[in-house]
Amino acid sequence: MPHDEIEILEERRNQVFRKGEGAASGEIACGKRSAAGSVSQRACVFCGSRVVLYPIADALHVVHGPIGCAAYTWDIRGAHSSGPQLHRNSFSTDLQEKDVIFGGEKKLAAALRELIAACTPKAAFVYSTCITGLIGDDVDAVCKTISKETGIPVIPVESPGFSGTKKDGYRAACEAIYKLIGTGDISGISPHSINLLGEFNIAGETWIMKDYFRRIGIQVVSCISGDGRVDEIRRCHGAKLNLVQCSGSMTHLAKKLTDDYGIPFQRISFFGIEDTAAAIYGAAGVFGDPEIESRARELVKEELLKIQPELRRYRKILKGRKAAIYVGGAFKAFSLVRALRSLGMRTVLVGSQTGNPQDYEQLKELCDPGTVIVDDSNPLELAKFCLEKDVDLFIGGVKERPIAYKLGIGFCDHNHERKEALAGFEGMINFAKEVHASVMSPVWNYVPRRANRRQERMAA
Amino acid sequence: MIEEFSLTEEPKAPDLSHCTAATRNACKLCTPLGACLVFRGIQGAIPFLHGSQGCSTYIRRYLISHFREPMDIAASNFNEDSAVFGGAKNLHAGLKNVSRQYKPAMIGVATTCLSETIGEDMAALLLECRRAIPDLPPVVHVSTASYRGSHIDGFHDAVTALIDQLVLPPDPHGGVNLLPGMLSTADLRHLRELVEAFGLPVTMLPDYSDTLDGPTWMDYEALPEGGTSVEAIRRMSGARATLEFGDTLRFTRRTAATNLAERFGVVRENLGTPIGLRATGAMIEALERISGRPCPTAITAERGRLLDSMVDAHKVVFGKRAVVYGEADLVIGLTSFLCEIGVEPVLCASGGKSEHFPTALRVAVPELPSTCVVRDNMDFADIDAVGKELKPDILIGNSKGYGMARALDIPLVRAGFPIHDRLGGQRVLHVGYRGAQQFYDQIVNTFLARKQEKSTVGYSYL
Predict the structure, then answer these.
(1) Nearest to B70 among A67, A111, A406 (CB)
(2) Which of A66, A163, B100, B174 registers the highest number of CB atoms within 10 A of its CB?
(3) Which CATH number fits the domain A193-299, given the four candidates 3.90.1150.10, 3.30.360.10, 3.40.50.300, 3.40.50.1980?
(4) Which residue has better confidence, A355 or B458?
(5) What is the least distance, in Å, from the CA of B33 to any CA of chain A?
(6) Continuous segment of H or E residues that includes residue A198
């Protein structure tokens, strides 16, 4: 099917926006349920919860449902732990037909008892799935009983797949985490302390950030949930500031911590040099301690000096190249647009699965005229715009990768499966290297769609 | 910086052997995945899941990571209302949207645990949709409740559903039907080549050898080229025989091949998955019998070279102890070949429930030592617990066994599905003499490399 014949479904027309054209004054519709049959790149409520809680490494994660939900989320992410590896297992009640008929509560209780005895976790999360409620299982009651028996928090996660969008899953995860908060001892926490929220330690990124904060004299009480530990989460209410990176998933938790404990929060991002520097300065500025601020300036200067010559080299090569971005949360998209700009590249297509109206307003402001902005897009639309805009690079996740590769377009994984650290200053160099490797590879000279074009250009 | 925080020593994994109520690191996937894979092997077809959005996205991601190809799966995207009142509205909207956007030649609808639990009457719902949506292409539906069976059951059930719902009364054409089972794209290509070498036109169902392993594109292909055409499926009733691979299927009362045999009298030739000398030989014999032609010399030559290499390296592999896991019929095929070359299988494990697995394996591989543990319904915690006591030298199966191989410090030779940690998982050739040759070379070289690496001397001449 020629890409210019790909139709945008009627239900979705107000979720596609071209900056600087007719509908420019209008808003991008978002936060909607995905249109049936649209092949959305989104997953479900369960996915939202699983993705947020997964990196808590000393907790037991049990999926209550048929096998799929647990099997598809077994050890697929690069969320590292510096200690326990319990989170990398996939535990499921693997409901069978007889359980669907007679109920799965007993099986769940037995599974929890055995696993808690064998794994001695600090807490357990029990994820409900599509059919848990439909078959009449009272997961809350089972969790209460087992918690009483075992003495550890056994927390139900309200995540039936159909009961909303991925965002509702984030919220359910925040509610589950919130049950732990406030139950730990907060003595000994520095007055200069923070929590990192919505940071998942993909490829060790949390550790890059922790190092920065240690160097400028700020204590990280808890990272939720990268390299996460139950005891750290229990006492995170003792921190003085929350830095929220993945705002789509964790703003809910940050707001609760503001309301109940008076802890302010800042939306930050550690992707790209500008945003990393802004995140460090922002946090350093809160404590009114000139020494911390001066150390922050030193750190940024020192790190920038280390990477700038190499970045300049990449910028020279990549200047003028065009990129498409399609990611889960819109906040990451802002950072990527800026990070690409610092490499001399232009973003011509950008979208997210779960952006909110404010996110899209900000994206509109940030992007160049002509940029296509999409909410909850699908493979056909993404392909259509990639071809129309003739992009050199696509940044997305596993599901977007083959769209790019089939069309002979370079691709960078910026999702949770990746094994490359892309955060902070050193992450920016990794990112630049990857973009460079992807855009400049000689393979594109042989891929017919690009090779022909090159020949045509040469002939002209 | 990352190094400072990183794990220096992996913590001891908990002993999960007594936690039998839960499935721990499953060696199986859910039924709709198998159905989606089959529908992707039909020309111009799009798989469609009647259930939550997440099911399609998770399955897409899982398949994309193995095949490294686009894998679009639509969903009716249930919400709270559809979970309570039924998904008719969403099914209707979904089919309409997917027809408009993809212009498919067929839509393969598979149910999920959600739509099955609320008891959706798919036949009735689809009839309504057909009345209401003009130009709706043929729709085939299969019941794939994920609490019933595993992905391999979804695979076979989808093949049966296609035959049950599409095949027309016979118009004899002299070709053969081939139901290969869940194999790699390289396997499917090679099987077609082998059957055609006997001058037999073949309808292979499914055939995702092109749709899930194709070249790059000049423009976006909503539905990649290739696959078995609906027209060819309709004519499967006129074939002179149906070759059906899978030893366990022989013991199953109803399969796609029995459906064709009972309804249209098409001869059912049930064979083991043609892995190794014996099973490939049985397939070649069947092809000779059906076609009335002798085996082409090129194939005999491949067999000859395989045997010759088996002589060359027999000592390297003799007596090595192997753990084999995966789908029942693949495990039977691999085990059969391992026994032919002198490797001793000590544990043969299937992840799904397959009551016929032990019997079918013992019948197909009579020389398998009685001490070999053969069990279905095992998860990786079981395989790990039972396997390590048996002191294996090698693991053979999909990439999900890597953790076990690493813990035991033994090599893993990757076969089957999924292979998520190597390139070319979809192109691993298991079948035919050629597949056996590649598999044999890989096993031998794995042992040679191991010996070399672990040697204090490090000879470069082996």
Answers:
(1) A406
(2) A66
(3) 3.40.50.1980
(4) A355
(5) 9
(6) strand A193-199
